[in-house]
Amino acid sequence: MSDSHQGSCLCQAVRFRTRGALRGVVCCHCSQCRKQSGHFYAATNVADADIVLEGAENISWYEASDFARRGFCKVCGSVLFWKPRDQVYISVMAGSFDKPTGLEGQCHIFVGDKGDYYSIHDGLPQFEKSAPSIPVVE
């Protein structure tokens, strides 16, 4: 996988570039992710120091909990980021990266809260709440 990636929202009012290795894609099925995106989140992580944003003035941040906030383009509405408080990384939605991404699925979290209209059959590990190595609000 390349150590450099770029991506954007749908209208390209927000663009980003990353450097360094990206974590595998974690799919979050919690009710907050489902309500915001219409399905589930699929995101990787980038160290804060390894992402450059263009058009940051077009990002609207929603404080979804005391634990994290969610960033989306205020022009086109694209869901882009999940940023935990007091952490030095940002989760970036996998679908917002330009191809080729080189990304691979890692696991599913909060499957106990997933929508009742789909099944998960991709063979990736599934966790009722969160994986031990993934800090999220419980």
Summarize it.
This protein is mostly beta strands. The protein has one helix at residues 31-37; strands at 4-8, 15-19, 25-28, 41-47, 51-54, 59-62, 68-73, 79-84, 89-93, 105-109.
Helix amount:
under 10%
Number of helices: 1
Question: How would you sum up the major sheet?
Answer: 7 strands, mixed
* Low-confidence spans: none
Strand order of the largest sheet: 6-7-8-9-4-3-10
Using only C-alpha atoms, the radius of gyration works out to 14 Å
How many strands? 10
Order of helices and strands: EEEHEEEEEEE
SS strand fraction: 35-45%
Note down, in words, how this protein is organized.
It is a single chain. Helices cover 5% and strands 37% of the residues. The chain is mainly β. It has a 7-stranded mixed sheet with strand order 6-7-8-9-4-3-10. A 3-stranded antiparallel sheet has the order 1-2-5, with no helix packed on it. Strand 7 and strand 8 form a beta hairpin. The longest helix is centred in the N-terminal third of the chain and has 7 residues, at 31-37. The termini are far apart. The model has no long low-confidence stretch (mean pLDDT 93).
